[in-house]
Amino acid sequence: MSTTKKDIENALMRGADSLRDTIDAANYKDYVLPLMFVKYLSDTYAEKVEELEKEYEGIRLERQKRYLPFTVAQDCSFTTLYEQRYADNIGQIINTALRQIENDNNQQLAGVLNTTDYNSENALGTREHKNAILRELLEDLYPLNLRPSEIEVKEGEVPADVIGDAYEYMIGQFASMAGKKAGSFYTPAAVSEIMAQIVDVQPGERVYDPTCGSGSLLIKAAKKENSKQVSIFGQEVNGSSVAMAKMNMYIHEIRDAKIAWGDTLANPMFKDEDGNLLTFDAIIANMPFSKDKWAAGFNPGGEAVGKGKKEFKMEATLDKHHRFDWGVPPASKGDWAFLLHMIASSSVNGRIAAVAPHGVLFRGAAEGRIRQRVIDENLLDAVIGLPENLFYGTPIPACILVFKKNRTNKDILFIDASGKDPEGNLRYKKDKNQNILEKKHIDDIIKAYLDRKDVEKFAHVATIDEIKENGYNLNIPRYVDTFEEEELIDIEEVQNNIARLKIEIAEAEAKMEQYLKELGLN
Description:
- There is one protein chain.
- The protein is an alpha/beta fold.
- It contains 18 helices and 9 strands.
- Strands 3-2-1-4-5-7-6-8-9 form a 9-stranded mixed sheet.
- Strand 4, helix 13 and strand 5 form a beta-alpha-beta unit.
């Protein structure tokens, strides 16, 4: 019987259930997804070897096996781990196997499988408890057959699409479970789709995400075209998310993506041979909202708040890449720091789509000056307001800012996707835990962006003069009027209803008093 996407999702969810009550939901992904990745590698490698064994044997077989894209030693396979699930040191056995797989495939899997300690009593409890959890995890995933020939595919799909989509779905589910601790490692698929269509990556181009999290945004942007014709770059400060992004790429058969670990602002990893920032044709990002202490990595040392010490203050001269020459964002809000990094990393005809909190649209002081300079340089192309409660980890509404180099038009498009259409229907779907943008909502946003015309209560093309008249304030309600006039209240009808209710209350009280007398109660 073929393995479906739902089968994979169910197995991963069983794995999450095995961890429930032991570790925080924010960490489910760190334990479940690497083991699922090992299952995928093991099953795929076993099938490839069996195919070779039909044609070769002996030395010729061993030579052909070396040409396979990766290798999994027998004592590291998922089946071998499963067979040892009752071992007292199963945590250490898993650790050793994962590190061996990484070492044997170091060129492609470096830093992918060594970020989680399956032998940690601090994380998983005493030896007995830890062993029971790990045994259950192995048993949850063992029945899953991830051999490519056994994956049920639809027309136009390949097995990697099914496994990759299930993997990304579960990243989203784990983000939902994690709640506020989900951070920015996952961008809802609908938002990823909107951003991918906006930046419109073409074959031969370089696409970049400076805060790539699990890599879902990059994959969505690259998959719009053949990902093998696109160069993919991502940087992430969280080591666990870096490993997840690399696994995500590998499962989607994107084998040449460059995912770097480090602080994008203080230590950007992608540079040209002269040490300048590498530039990209398309940039997408769901950056950390209003990141506090974003400039800490620029501190030369010895400066801090405290007795006898000088307080560190970020200055534009501390950045050798000159990203903050237009202004230094406030220490407690790094939104414009990331946006300026993206603008500096954009090629001569580059496009940027970045998720940001609404504060970037109207906050004053240094942020206001930066915003004015960006607008005066004709870099801002569009502002798209999204519904509230769309992102995991925060209920606040966000927006997508679109920047373009070498723009021919001199206006800015505003879209408000957080309200209702002319028929009174919401431009999104309210769900139990999160609001959702369905296909029709996504299509409406993309059409408005491409048409670039005024649409009542939805879109407005603002001239630069309008922007200047508003003091460079980009707050969306200033440009898209979504005000709904309330129905007039019939005062006479309200008064009549009040009089009627008073009579009904008096009659009810009289009846109650009569009942109490009959019962002999005061």
